Amino acid sequence: xxxxxxxxxxxxxxLAAVSASPxxxxxxxxNDPSNREEMQYLDDGAATAQQAPIPRQxxxxxxxxxxxxxxxxxxxxxxxxxxxxGEAIEYGVxxxxxxxxxxxxxxxxxxxxxxxxxxxxxMIKRRPDLPRYMSGGIDNPLGARAMYLGSSIYRIxxxxxxxxxxxxxxxxxxxxxxxxxxxxxxxxxxxxxxxxLD
Length: 198
Hints:
Blueprint (H helix, E strand, L loop, with lengths): L1 H18 L7 E6 L4 E6 L14 E4 L9 E4 L4 E7 L2 E6 L2 E2 L7 E10 L7 H6 L18 E5 L5 E3 L10 E3 L3 E2 L2 H10 L5 E5 L1
Parallel strand pairs: 4-13, 7-11, 10-12
Antiparallel strand pairs: 1-2, 3-6, 4-5, 5-6, 8-9, 8-13, 9-10
């Protein structure tokens, strides 16, 4: 009996040691719905990898915008995809930091899955340490999807820094969590109108 209790105590201590291991030693996975491929994220202690800090939701919205339109409110740090007259899906986004805000009307000119990234010349001038080219993948700052806006240097894209959603930190692009950008990407058509408000 005593040996059984000692064995059980040893097992319990072993389980406690495993569960007490630091979160940084663990990994999390995110399934890309387009190819069912698991993409690994290092665990930062969040409940799930890339959990949206601002959950998407269906909301009542300004009825003057046609279904299929994207409306971005820079001040609210929200993107609205109009689904029906007076209704939209609201997403949390990261926007341009002070000095990099912009407003206007564009159209989605292209869509890419796991896009490569070539920093524009303006960005290289400010940040000469940046790579000149980065192939698509989990380390790429454009994340899982990108929607290119006209012939501008701006995009709506995913992010490998989900904690920046809801903040003004970009060089003018609109950032989303990878889960949210995949959801939006599947809804948006090339040619969709994009309205960026202050």
